[in-house]
Amino acid sequence: MYPKQFELLIESFRKLSGVGAKTAERYAFEVLNWEDETWKQFVDAIQNTKTKLHQCERCGNISEETLCEICKDNTRDQHVICVVQEVRDIAAIEKINEYQGQYHVLNGVINTSKGILPDDLNIASLVERVKQQEVKEVIIAMNPTIEGETTALYLGKLLSEYPLKVTRLAHGLPIGSHIDYADELTLLKALENRTEL
């Protein structure tokens, strides 16, 4: 239906998560109409992402240098580490402008059905950081899924032998929601994590 090169462009967009055939086709037509300068910026951004970005040696965040901006920031609390599943979780936490500690990215969660075991995650370097940085608290910030729960429990047990506090994000009802729309697990967690008024 379309020229081969245009079909290749559509297929390239389909490789993006959540992009179906129609959306990929719409993206392809959109970029087809770009000015030359916009094309160049887009191509350069993709090429530079592959060549100039890598993982921070300390925490696993994306960075253009050996250490990411957060790890280089000496004003942040070096004794608190928030463990997250993915790099994008850091951005979500940073948006609230409250947390001033360090991060550690696992690059996934334990998922035995997919063959992802603790050794496949960025856990060994977390233990090394705990040993070397005199960490006082590790905050486990996993998604509230079965895999996230499994990973949180594993990390809690693993870190229990060190003299530090291991905490996790509270679970419960989101602001603005209705109790009758919540699933059983969310209601259970809300009851377990209730606080005094």
TrEMBL record:
Q: Which UniProt keywords apply?
A: DNA damage, DNA recombination, DNA repair, Metal-binding, Zinc, Zinc-finger
Specify whether Zinc is a keyword of the entry.
yes
Q: Which Pfam families did the record assign? A: RecR_C (PF21175), RecR_HhH (PF21176), RecR_ZnF (PF02132), Toprim_4 (PF13662)
Q: Which domain of life is it from?
A: Bacteria
**C4-type zinc finger span:** 56-71
Record domain Toprim: where? 79-174
> What the protein does?
May play a role in DNA repair. It seems to be involved in an RecBC-independent recombinational process of DNA repair. It may act with RecF and RecO.
Assigned protein family: Belongs to the RecR family.
Protein name per the record: Recombination protein RecR
Natural source organism: Massilicoli timonensis
